[in-house]
Specification:
Elements lengths: L1 E8 L4 H9 L8 E7 L5 E7 L3 H8 L6 E7 L3 H22 L8 H26 L4
Antiparallel strand pairs: 1-3, 1-4, 2-3
InterPro entries: DUF3303
Keywords: Coiled coil
Protein name: DUF3303 domain-containing protein
């Protein structure tokens, strides 16, 4: 899985972070795609691949308490668009089969029943209000 970390730290901890990172080696099982630093300071971005949450945990452990990690699953946009199109097509196929409910009713029939129930509720609420109205 491809992940992106946004790593931040307090300005006062910059020297500690720099020293730790200078001697840091990523654990086996983490494939670094790229790393960037925020030129305004106190933030780093890393894109990497890993399949194992234990490997991820061991990669952030040395920095815990010193840095804050925000980790997101990411995907290249063109790859995501292809996946989204496939999922939309699949959902369209499932929707055409799902338009008829388990009891054989179509979506339109169900919506009509809901509308009728809403009208009945309005009439009952109005009737209840009229009965409670003070006529003195």
């Amino acid at each position: 899985m491809l992940l992106m970390d946004i790593i931040t730290w307090e300005p006062k901890d910059s020297l500690k972070v720099a020293e730790l990172y200078a001697n840091y080696e990523y654990p086996k099982g983490i494939k670094i795609i790229d790393e960037w630093t925020d030129l305004t300071g106190y933030r780093t971005f890393i894109i990497y691949e890993t399949d194992d949450e234990k490997t991820y945990a061991s990669s952030v452990f040395p920095f815990m308490g010193l840095c804050r990690f925000e980790t997101f699953p990411v995907m290249k946009l063109d790859k995501f668009m292809q996946l989204a199109q496939k999922l939309a097509e699949k959902a369209g196929e499932e929707k055409s089969g799902a338009e008829q409910g388990e009891d054989g009713k179509t979506s339109e029939e169900i919506f009509q029943q809901i509308e009728n129930l809403e009208k009945r509720i309005e009439r009952l609420e109005h009737h209840s209000f009229v009965q409670q109205e003070d006529v003195t």
